[in-house]
Design goal:
Blueprint: E1 5-8, E2 15-16, H1 18-32, H2 41-47, H3 53-63, H4 68-91, E3 96-97, H5 101-110, E4 114-118, H6 123-133, E5 141-143, H7 156-165, E6 172-176, H8 179-187, E7 191-195, E8 210-212, E9 224-226, H9 239-244
Parallel strand pairs: 1-4, 1-6, 4-5, 6-7, 7-8
Antiparallel strand pairs: 2-3, 8-9
Helix pairs in contact: 1-4, 3-4, 4-6
This protein binds xylulose-1,5-bisphosphate and magnesium ion.
Amino acid sequence: MTLRAVIFDVDGTLVDSERDGHRVAFNLAFEEFGLPYRWDVDTYGDLLRTTGGQRRIDAYLAGEGVDEAERARLVPALHARKTELMTGLIEEGRVELRPGAHRLLTELAADGCRLAVATTGSRGWVEGLLAKVLPDVTFDATVTGDEVDERKPDPEAFTVALERLDVPAGEAVVVEDSAEGVEASAAAWLACAVVVNGYTRDHDLKAAGLVLDGFGEPDAPAEVLADRAGTGCTGVLDRASLSRLLTPGDARGPG
Ligand code: XBP
Ligand code: MG
């Protein structure tokens, strides 16, 4: 099967955006609203298991005993301000591309592979981010949380991306960073490679064919944490390793 499209997650995958981006923006919004909540680095790792910023704030406030009527008033306003603050952090260059992401994207585009992003994050910051950190990369489809009813681990973002790419699931792969993303890709019948980060290294990623701790560069390969699909990847995530996820061979490597 030929690899015709690759669908990338954004937060934690293409960019290191959670700890020093979204978390900071959520805390600034709480402060501006005169609220006492502050999410430290470890707490935020647990909160990330609820995908979607609005859902994350809502679940947290419910846990703090804020009643439903107050949450219905506060959550959309807090999240709208958080989105503005995140956009400011992006413009300041506080959100960086992960090493090797640009290499892989340009290699895929040069080979005629179609590219998409599928994120549960909001369009309000996603488009600005992609223009800022990947100005020379064209995505054939950009699916954000604003265009789907359900957030990951629901597969909707990926199924919408496939529709827009006009590519069947069997000819596309996903690159993700988290268990929620892997579950969503599996539910969409898509093969998945994972590039973990500090927040997701311990996630259950057994449904992923290939797991690395980064995209890797030829002079600085990533660690291969699991190669269940037998891609033979040696630490540089490239078109060849992604293609082999479509035709799994003998399992090789650790995990
Ligand atoms: C990302 C999310 C998003 C971001 C915050 O998950 O869950 O909610 O954390 O962005 P994934 P918003 O990487 O699995 O798509 O506040 O815009 O939702
Ligand atoms: Mg992610």
